[in-house]
Hints:
Elements: H1 6-14, H2 17-25, H3 28-53, H4 56-61, H5 76-83, H6 91-122, H7 128-137, H8 143-156, E1 158-160, E2 163-166, H9 174-201, H10 205-213, H11 218-229, H12 231-247, H13 250-255, H14 264-268, H15 282-299, H16 301-309
Antiparallel strand pairs: 1-2
Amino acid sequence: MSVKTEPEAVSTIGESRGERIRRLLSSRLASAFAVGIALIWTIPTAGLFISSLRPEDDIRATGWWTFFGDPSFTLETYNYVLYSTSQGGGLIRNLINTVVITIPGVIIPVTFAALAAYALSWIQFKGRNLLYIGIFTLQVVPLQMALIPLLSFFSKGLAIGPLTLMPAWQLTGVQTIVQVWIAHSIFGLPLAIYLLHNFMRELPTDVMEAARIDGASHSQIFRKVVLPLVTPALASIGIFQFLWVWNDFLVGRTFGGGEATRPLTAVLGDMAGTWGFGWTRLPAAAFVAIIVPLLVFLLLQRYFVRGLLAGSVKG
């Protein structure tokens, strides 16, 4: 039986609750538990990937775990779902649509959210707090409640005075993509503004006052002082928005128009066909849909973690 020395006992007794939790979470048992959860969480993705590489007859006959006993793989399913002109194929077009929708669907709301968060945090104007409360309460409004009013708005066309920016007739092609951008920006702005506002409010007041004393305008302060300090937060919110827009089904299905302009997720459900005979193509199509956000998250993980920890420690 080991006995703690006096310095160790004193340090254990004097540690705070947060330090105690941090010590427990960094123990070997906690690390092993986390690795076990990660492995279990990865099993469905691994099974999906293996199934996407197996021949159609093998998928219908046996489960994906039998691949290790009798390995056989083919890329014919990927070739079919990406380039075939038959039922359940030609997803390369929808993949490009998803990329075209996602990139502006991230840049637009994050840009406007950063500007709005700075104004709500560091610019004094009448009704600022009331406006912030109104933006915060928009988060509790279900997305489904706004679909029909927004669809009606798009069907009538977007006009400002005599200038018609989006005609109501034949909203196809570029115009259809634009209305999906607008929808994603509208639905993503409240949360992005709320999170960025919390980050910007934690910026040192002395730094902002020093910039004002030096004669910097709000535009200069935002570009040269605020943006470098909140870059991790912008990256985290950008990742969240990217994953949400890329994996979205409802907005793409509602505002995406015809098959030529719909994103990838909006057409995956139709791949199996009316009678479900094409279900063997779904693993390959699903893996095509998840590979891009998976790579984005893995490549930008350090910015994501840094953004989550930003503002948690003062001093």
